[in-house]
Write a structure and sequence with these properties.
The chain is an alpha/beta fold and 447 residues long. Helix content is 45%, strand content 14%. α1 packs parallel to α3, α3 crosses α5 and α5 runs parallel beside α7.
């Protein structure tokens, strides 16, 4: 077998590993780092990997018409065909001849003559016969599912929650590229200084309309800037910055970040604290390796003097800390992550309604455990990076029902995001600001 290292071959290899359980972002990073590719080829591989995953249900629907149910297709062969289909359908500037030739060559290099003939036959059959029209599917849920490559259960759940029009708007957004956003580390630099430095390095810098001390960047990767290396900024989605804003942290506060890894919100909290006044954030994570990651991030951001990272399941917090220990508590809870589909597109295929119900139990368990550690008049913020009420508004309501010593308080953010809403809680959908989907709620302990 000849090793084929063209961008298309590398994309197929990465996609096959993702299909076997690897995370798309981590697998792509590994693939790109292990091959010396030009910037153009790196972008092409990235496009092929994310694009194929984003449209996978749609592509599989098209492919199914040209493969007999009795035919057993190896995973990498299937990915070779899906990558070819993706290019033909969604990339206008890629010639059909190049798509066909490289797919057939990959089949020849990696497989045997039978696989080469199979791939050749399928590609030419699709070219001759054409593909079915998704718009002709009569079932409206199935039609939306295959148009936007989202499981039917998720289409139904979103429709029920926000209505048909808003659901379509969300579905249209999630297959678009995610914006690149950064947060200025105000512990060591001013917003103005970092903005000027980024502009001097050739970035196009746009102030965020979602979060304070934040920018959107284009033209280059943020981690290539010298202000990233010096810890003057960090990469973080704008929506993900809002839970810490809702905490209303004061310089001398004792803060608990109950589900902290990799430490983005921990360092955001730490930047608001004053170590000389006794301010400290205790950052918990279940896994020791992730605790190390929190510590590395705190060190890079020059806030280690006010961060204490601890390996601990937040549900077992009674084993470690006394009651009424913290002024502020953040529970950025484990969740389905369905607000991050643009960054981790495979999430949509991995989760089930049963997973969502199980996650709600975990989320309530964490809230119940940490609530005893909050001082009177302290603020507890619960947030997720998902868009489903089961993990969001329903959890907030159940927590308040079970804890009459807490009251809901309105989530306030620096830039007054969605300030005209009627709810205390704040729900950000991917189509609202072209940022990640997020949910933020806040509670005050009455006694």
């Amino acid at each position: 077998m000849t090793k084929n290292t063209t961008p298309r071959a590398l994309a197929v290899e990465a996609l096959t590993r993702v299909a076997n359980g690897a995370y798309s972002n981590l697998q792509l990073e590994t693939t790109l780092e292990s091959h010396n590719l030009s910037d153009v080829d790196r972008r092409f591989v990235t496009n092929l990997v994310y694009g194929t995953i984003q449209h996978q249900l749609t592509l599989e629907y098209y492919l199914a018409g040209f493969v007999k149910p009795s035919q057993k297709v190896l995973p990498w062969v299937k990915m070779t065909l899906l990558v070819a289909l993706y290019q033909g359908l969604y990339l206008d500037r890629v010639p059909k001849r190049a798509i066909f030739n490289e797919a057939i060559q990959l089949a020849k290099d990696r497989g045997h003559e039978g696989i080469r003939r199979f791939v050749t036959g399928v590609l030419h059959a699709m070219d001759r016969q054409g593909l079915p029209d998704v718009n002709e599917i009569k079932d409206p849920v199935k039609r939306l599912s295959l148009t936007y490559s989202v499981p039917e259960w998720l289409v139904t759940a979103v429709q029920k929650q926000v209505g048909d029009e808003k659901a379509v708007s969300i579905l249209e957004t999630i297959n678009q590229p995610a914006a690149q956003s950064v947060r200025v580390n105000t512990a060591v630099a001013t917003v103005e200084e970092v903005e000027q430095s980024l502009k001097d390095q050739g970035y196009t810098v746009t102030p965020s309309v979602v979060a304070g001390n934040a920018f959107r960047l284009t033209d280059k990767a943020a981690n290539q800037s010298n202000v990233f290396e010096t810890g003057e900024l960090t990469i973080q989605d704008e929506s993900a910055m809002l839970p810490v804003e809702a905490l209303q942290v004061r310089p001398g506060d004792q803060v608990l970040d109950a589900c902290a890894a990799p430490g983005g919100k921990t360092t955001q909290i730490a930047a608001l604290l004053d170590a000389h006044s006794g301010g400290k954030v205790t950052a918990l994570d279940l896994h020791p390796k992730k605790v190390t990651l929190i510590e590395k991030n705190a060190d890079r951001m020059h806030v280690s003097d006010r961060v204490d990272a601890v390996a601990l399941d937040a549900r077992n917090i009674n084993d470690r800390f006394p009651k009424k220990e913290f002024d502020r508590i953040l529970v950025d809870a484990p969740c389905s992550g369905l607000g991050l589909i643009r960054r981790k597109p495979e999430i949509r295929y991995e989760k089930t309604p049963q997973d969502i119900q199980q996650l709600q139990k975990v989320q309530l368990g964490i809230l119940d455990a940490v609530s005893e550690k909050l001082k009177p008049n302290g603020i507890l913020v619960y947030s997720t990076c998902t868009i489903l009420d089961t993990e969001n508004a329903d959890v907030a309501a159940k927590f308040l029902e079970a804890h009459p010593d807490f009251e809901s308080v309105r989530v306030e953010t620096q830039l007054k995001v969605k300030d005209d809403r009627s709810t205390d809680t704040l729900a950000i959908y991917p189509d609202d600001f072209d940022s990640d989907g997020f949910f933020v709620s806040a509670f005050r302990k009455k006694k």
